[in-house]
């Protein structure tokens, strides 16, 4: 068997605007949901006042330091960088008729810099943020008007960057709205499951319209969806547990089913019926849903279990999903259970279900990196984590799964999404920054930097199998 990955496999890293850019009020940027959650997705909404401080306001200052960071990515051999556009840089309130030219110009510079280094951008339209104006004035995605606002935003950026960006994603981890409705669909306060699915319906329609617009405006581009790949195993082989796992998996597969097949699956209709959920829809919505994605992208950090036995369901909070812990797996410092084989299972599952190309756009290990006496960070734990996951990607490719690429999450230390922590570091590149904002923001290479460079240069031949 060949040990190398295919020639056209894309290698790189993944970032999100609100976790790296900083410059939160520069060049006319509006307030986003992320700005209003200074302690992360699972924190409280905080009224932002002049002079107050959130670590996300500066983040790692990618807004000003991107040329240097991109040259470091190039040094590792990246052929692809996943970034997101901050919607609020383009439409600060979300409902303007005309876009903010300064925001558009900044992403032009970013994409030009990537092109100079031969790095292909993979761009997420909405990564865990939306204009706060749309939450305050319209009630977020609960309001059907959001579809048109999002379509205008998507068409604006497709038109502007049509010659620069050929790979697009619609909504980051679209299934996470079920777990964090404010970040996912801009719903505040108490909301019912029906409210959330109504907002999700609007977002799925908007996603379909974005796919349509992308195909019209950039015929040689490809556009994918983005799922949080929450792979669930049955806790035991009891038929009840096996069925519970099937149902849990459908909670995220539902999004893939709609975005890849173009219609609502029977199991969700039953669920809606039994729970008295009646979605408000219009006939045109179903035409929009028929514009299915070209490829499927997903994040994968961990797997979990499901059981029908509620008393056993001692829950472990992993990022966003509550999952029953797997007694056979070890965990990261943040309690995320590490399961490289699960990535092969997930790739095969998605391929068998949809037969669309797959792109792993997030996978990574958050850890507290401690410099040694010489100031070096020997992050062997991170190397082991990535090595073991990439070996499973290679296995899946040999199983016949079509995999477009791998963008490691957090190639440079950034602000974590769930709790806005600096201490949870993912990077190959260390950033001198503390939670209170102190630090020089200087970048330095960790041991994993050189290791990943060698993996990319050898197209995976240096992986330990
Ligand atoms: C994914 C998100 O859920 O997980 C990223 O798309 C996020 O934005 C990543 O950063 C890791 O989560 P955390 O909370 O460790 O940053």
TrEMBL record:
Residues annotated as coiled-coil are none
The source's domain of life comes to Bacteria
* Signal peptide span: none
Q: Name one GO molecular function term.
A: 6-phospho-beta-glucosidase activity
Please list every transmembrane segment annotated in the UniProt record, as residue ranges.
none
Cellular component terms (Gene Ontology):
cytosol
A Pfam family annotated for this UniProt entry: Glyco_hydro_1
Query: Active-site positions, per UniProt?
Result: 362 (nucleophile)
Q: Which GO terms describe its biological process?
A: carbohydrate catabolic process
Q: Which family does it belong to?
A: Belongs to the glycosyl hydrolase 1 family.
According to UniProt, the name of this protein is 6-phospho-beta-glucosidase
Question: What is the name of the gene encoding this protein?
Answer: ascB
